[in-house]
Amino acid sequence: MNTAAARSASRGASRLMRDVLSLFKLRIGFMIMITALVGMAVTPGPWPGVGPMIVLALSVIVSSAAAGAFNQYVDVESDRLMARTRGRAFVTGAVRRSPAWLVVMALMLTGACWAAWSVLNPMVALHTFLGAFVYGVVYTLWLKRRSWLNIVVGGLAGSFAVLAGAAAVDPALGPLPLLLSLVLFLWTPPHFWSLAIARQADYAAAGVPMLPVVVGPQRAAQAVLVSTVALVVASLLPGFFGAGPVYLAGAAAGGVYFIVKSWGLWLEPCRKTAMGAFSASLVQLSLVLVAATIDGLMR
Asked: Tell me: domain 13-172, CATH 1.10.357.140, correct?
C-alpha cells in the first residue's frame, strides 16, 4: 500500500512538474536562445568566452520563459476557446493561476537582465529585456486582440534575441546581425499566418483578429506568399555584407522551398497546404540559422 501510494505521489509530482514547465513555452524559448547564439556567431570580433556565452543563453531563455508564462497568464480566457490551447495548465487548473506567478515572472526577467548586464554588457541586457517586453506587453497585452498587425509587430521579439547575441561580441551592431534580425522579423508573419489559416476557426472563436480571420484565407494566403518572397530577398542580403557561400546556399535552399510551399498555399488555401507552408517556414529558418553559424565559425 505504501509503495503504491509512493508511486502515485511520484507520478503526481512528475505531472505537476511537466505542467509547470509547460507554462514557460520552453520549445519557443530554446529556439530564441539559438537565434541569440547565432547572432553571436555571425558578429565579427573575439568571443567573450564559454562562461559569458552560457550566461547569454540562460538570460535569453529565462527572459523568454517569463514572457511565455505571462502570455499564458493573460490569455487564459481566450485559451479556453481554442482547441490548440485549452489543455494549457492555467486553463485546466492543473496549475493555479495566482498573482504570485506575476512576481515569479518579474523576478525571472529581472534576474536574466541583471545577469546579462553584469557578465556581458548593458546592450545585451537591453535587447534581452526588449525581446520579452515586446512579446509580453506589446504583442500579448496591446495588439493581440486589437489588430491583425499583432504578429507583425510581435515579430520583433525574436529579432532582439539576435541583437542580444551580437551585442555580446560587439555592442556597436554591424550589418550582419542587423540583417539577420531583419530576417527574423520578416519570418514571423508568414510563419504564423500559415498556422492561422490552418487554425482560423480557433482564432475566430477566441476573438483574436489574426489576418485570416480579418480578410479570409485567400487574401491571407496571398499575404503569406508576398511576405515569404520579401523574407527570402532579405535573407540573401547578407551576401553583400560578408556572408559566405555556405550561408547563401542555406538561405537560397530554404527560401526556394518556403516559396514553393507558399505558392501552393496561395493556389489552394486549405489546412493541408497551410500546414505545409508552416512546416516549410521552420525548415527555412533552420537552414538560415545553421548556415549562418557555420559561415560565422569559418571566418
From this structure: yes
How far apart (Å, rounded) are the C-alpha atoms in residues 115 and 100?
23
Q: Identify the CATH class of 174-299.
A: mainly alpha
Question: By CB neighbour count within 10 A (0-12 exposed, 13-18 middle, 19+ buried), where does 116 fall?
Answer: buried
Least confident of 11-15, 33-37, 72-76, 127-131: 11-15
Whether the Cβ atoms of residue 223 and residue 189 lie closer than 8 Å to each other: yes
Q: What pLDDT does 289 receive? A: 94
The pTM (predicted TM-score) of the whole model is: 0.90
pLDDT of 165 > 70? The answer is yes
Winning range, highest mean pLDDT, from 170-179, 241-250, 254-263: 254-263
In the chain, CATH 1.20.120 sits at 174-299
Sequence-distant (6+) residues with CB within 8 A of 186 are: 155, 227, 230, 231, 234
Instruction: Give residue 7's pLDDT.
Output: 57
CATH 1.10.357.140 location in the chain: 13-172
3-state helix, strand, coil in the chain (%, to 5): 80, 0, 20
The label of the residue with cell 503569406 reads 224
